[in-house]
């Protein structure tokens, strides 16, 4: 039961920040002229690329932070702030600046393979998702935590693949209003989670704040 509770605590923010439902319009826009079989291959490759990148950061953990002499507490505060800004954009149903720029998406449409860039990185495994993985694993010596994060990454990648395969049906079923509503609800949950990250980091930086 404890394992499942800890796993869900990792899975929920990761799923929200990757945001497969919110990525459907981007996926459809980048693959609009392709046959279904090609779309499915791109969906699979993009999901695998994102899973590989995020799993690599989960294994690296806080080694990157130590290399730059950054404290884990400071990173939690900064990471929480980044996630809060993303959450505010989601609540307003705005395109996220951390995903990809319009000119990058337009350039990608001219390429045959859009699975790795920009779908895999940075649309799925973008700065927000990487920050989430690092915040979840930083300072955690237990291999169990890393295992939970990697399992969550794999599950989110699988959900993303299924979402992209049925992207047309989901888009028609939800419509723009339904998609925006879903993204807003996820953004609200992410905002709460990001505040918890910042509060924990501030508590470690300034122990006097915590009574």
Compact summary:
It is found in: Cell membrane. The protein is an all-alpha fold and 211 residues long. The protein has helices at residues 2-18, 24-30, 36-60, 63-67, 72-91, 102-109, 115-124, 127-137, 143-165, 167-205.
Structure report:
Its main location: membrane. The chain crosses the membrane at residues 6-30, 42-60, 66-91, 119-143, 149-169, 181-199. It holds the Pfam family MarC. This is UPF0056 membrane protein. By secondary structure, this protein is mainly alpha-helical. The protein has one domain (2-108, 118-209). The protein has 10 helices and no strands. α1 packs antiparallel against α8, α2 (24-30) crosses α10 (167-205) and α5 (72-91) runs antiparallel to α10. The longest helix is centred in the last third of the chain and has 39 residues, at 167-205. The radius of gyration is 17 Å and the shape is globular. The mean pLDDT is 87.
């Amino acid at each position: 039961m404890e394992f499942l509770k800890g796993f869900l605590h990792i899975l929920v923010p990761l799923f929200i920040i990757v945001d497969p439902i919110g990525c459907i319009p981007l996926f459809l826009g980048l693959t609009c002229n392709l046959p279904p079989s090609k779309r499915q291959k791109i969906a699979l490759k993009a999901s695998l690329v994102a899973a590989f990148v995020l799993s690599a950061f989960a294994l690296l953990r806080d080694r990157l932070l130590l290399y730059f002499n950054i404290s884990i507490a400071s990173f939690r505060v900064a990471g929480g702030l980044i996630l809060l800004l993303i959450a505010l954009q989601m609540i307003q149903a705005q395109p996220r600046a951390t995903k990809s720029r319009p000119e990058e998406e337009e350039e990608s449409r001219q390429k045959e393979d859009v699975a790795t860039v920009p779908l895999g990185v940075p649309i799925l495994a973008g700065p927000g998702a990487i920050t989430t993985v690092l915040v979840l694993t930083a300072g955690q010596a237990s291999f169990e935590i890393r295992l939970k994060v990697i399992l969550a990454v794999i599950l989110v990648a699988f959900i993303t693949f299924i979402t992209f395969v049925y992207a047309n049906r989901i888009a028609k079923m939800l419509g723009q209003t339904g998609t925006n509503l879903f993204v807003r609800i996820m953004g609200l949950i992410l905002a709460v989670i990001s505040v918890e990250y910042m509060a924990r980091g501030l508590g470690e930086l300034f122990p006097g704040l915590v009574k």
